[in-house]
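Hey L., structure's done. Input below.
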Amino acid sequence: MRLPRRQAPGRPKGPLPEARHLLTRRIRRLIDEAHLGNLREAAAHTRLPYATLRDLYLGRTTSPGLRTLVNIAEAYGTSLEWFTSDDTSASPRLLIEGQLPPDPEYGRGREGRRIRIPLAAWSLARCFLELERRLTKLPPRNDRPIIGSAVDPDEIRRSLTAYLLGPILEAQREGMVQILGAEPPFRGTRNPGAEDERQWVELLRALGKFWELIVRPES
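Output:
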């Protein structure tokens, strides 16, 4: 999914220098597509210093340390070779594949349905990843928050998705909003376009701001 660039907090001001090195182009693709160019969000996701990512993004650094590249590769689900080779077989993972619970009224059968939470909706994506990390560290038992005794990754994803998207799902049940961004699409969104994607990201970002006050993700 490609979203138009926009000035955002944490994005270097002024025109960017030409990206002459493949590594610079790869880093810019990750940060532009996953975080709308927001280097501070990318630093939080990769757990790298802002200055390190800024220099990579601007092309000031083209030979980072191995640990830096490993952090970035792991954060976006790609390989180290993707940064140094034109081979695109290991494209980065710029989406969280959430799982919605079953709901026949909205075309979700016994297995529920996958839904895309793009990293561009970083405030919500960050809360999702942080909750998943925290909760799966706890022993699986009935009184564990949100996911209870679940150990199956799909079941955990369903519980987390339903919990975090609860306000939107409730609004949908009341006929106030139509869910976008599902895979496959929800009823009424057979051909979602760029504007649908933009609205979906903005909706999820707004929801994420609410959850950030409760989850308080680690920096």
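The longest helix spans residues 194-215. The first strand starts at residue 95 and ends at 100.

-- N.
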